[in-house]
């Protein structure tokens, strides 16, 4: 009996020791300092609201993956030299990876390929003319443009005059959207003029005002969210001045709070929207995977067309207001 009691005490003692060792090991593991990665995101535009949803997605990923992010806009809109200098600066400053939306399909190839020799690089939203194996996260931009053209024609535009207000045409995403749009329009009896616009808000406002006041087109289309917002302002101001609705229709892409408001008021007819939140999120996730040497694949992001009638669906509300979840 005494022998059995002694054996039980030994077993209990051993179990206590094992439990203690397990607890110590768990504390040591949980106490280990997680490595923090520094990732720089360089977009191709200025400090515009249109990039903020993408930034929200990047910040969400950063909070989950122990990442410090620097979200960097350009001092001048779509400035190649500015973007080249920023890549060099961020690498020198110790960035573990670069996530970038390239300004120019051709001219950003060399600086990005050079950067790839030093740190992982992930392309978001736009790409470059390269044969290198570089990860790219975007929607199908050609298809987005094509879908917007189909939306315009579904709305009854079969023989309309279309003014396409183009900006940033050296960016692959913008170029592909216009290509998809114009290819689809060419199959119809609609006609279009592509206006390569540049300049500040006042210049763009006056260009749109001239089109609307002089009834030069039935439809205005742009794939630049900031230009879309300006065109919406012109139409709104013209309607208020005339105290009546006007027939010109507006179609475009991208999300700003003013653009959403104009869509709600039916000043803008339809917008093509990609999931910018996911682009920002997956840009950071892909960069972290590359730093760790994990296998990653290119990802095509969802896009859709939203109009006044469909903007209140749950799915479209998540695209328009991803930070309200």
Automatic annotation (TrEMBL):
<comment type="similarity">
    <text>Belongs to the bacterial solute-binding protein 2 family.</text>
</comment>
<dbReference type="Pfam" id="PF13407">
    <property type="entry name" value="Peripla_BP_4"/>
</dbReference>
<dbReference type="GO" id="GO:0030246">
    <property type="term" value="F:carbohydrate binding"/>
</dbReference>
<dbReference type="InterPro" id="IPR025997">
    <property type="entry name" value="SBP_2_dom"/>
</dbReference>
<dbReference type="InterPro" id="IPR050555">
    <property type="entry name" value="Bact_Solute-Bind_Prot2"/>
</dbReference>
<dbReference type="InterPro" id="IPR028082">
    <property type="entry name" value="Peripla_BP_I"/>
</dbReference>
<protein>
    <submittedName>
        <fullName>LacI family transcriptional regulator</fullName>
    </submittedName>
</protein>
<feature type="domain" description="Periplasmic binding protein">
    <location>
        <begin position="41"/>
        <end position="294"/>
    </location>
</feature>
<dbReference type="GO" id="GO:0030288">
    <property type="term" value="C:outer membrane-bounded periplasmic space"/>
</dbReference>
């Amino acid at each position: 009996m005494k022998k059995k009691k002694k054996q039980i005490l030994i077993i209990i003692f051993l179990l206590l020791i094992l439990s203690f060792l397990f607890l110590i090991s768990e504390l040591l593991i949980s106490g280990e300092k997680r490595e923090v990665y520094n990732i720089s995101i360089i977009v191709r535009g200025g400090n515009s609201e249109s990039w903020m949803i993408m930034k929200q997605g990047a910040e969400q990923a950063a909070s989950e993956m122990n990442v410090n992010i620097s979200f960097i806009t350009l001092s001048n809109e779509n400035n190649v030299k500015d973007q080249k200098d920023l890549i060099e600066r961020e690498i020198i400053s110790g960035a573990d990876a670069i996530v970038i939306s390239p300004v120019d399909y051709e001219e950003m190839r060399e600086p990005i390929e050079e950067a790839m020799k030093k740190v992982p690089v992930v392309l978001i939203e736009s790409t470059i003319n390269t044969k290198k194996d570089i990860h790219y996260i975007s929607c199908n931009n050609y298809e987005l443009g094509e879908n917007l053209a189909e939306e315009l024609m579904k709305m009854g535009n079969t023989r309309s005059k279309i003014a396409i207000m183009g900006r940033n045409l050296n960016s692959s995403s913008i170029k592909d959207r216009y290509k998809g749009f114009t290819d689809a329009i060419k199959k119809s009896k609609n006609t279009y003029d592509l206006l390569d616009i540049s300049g500040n808000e006042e210049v763009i406002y006056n260009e749109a005002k001239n089109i609307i006041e002089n009834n030069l087109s039935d439809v205005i289309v742009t794939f630049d969210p900031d230009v879309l917002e300006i065109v919406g302002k012109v139409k709104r101001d013209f309607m208020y001045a005339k105290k009546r609705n006007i027939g010109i229709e507006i179609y475009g892409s991208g999300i700003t709070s003013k653009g959403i408001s104009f869509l709600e008021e039916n000043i803008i007819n339809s917008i093509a929207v990609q999931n910018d939140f996911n682009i920002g999120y997956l840009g950071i996730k892909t960069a972290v995977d590359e730093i760790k040497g994990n296998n990653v694949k290119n990802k095509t992001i969802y896009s859709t067309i939203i109009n006044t009638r469909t903007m209140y669906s749950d799915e479209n509300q998540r695209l328009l207001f991803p930070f309200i979840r």
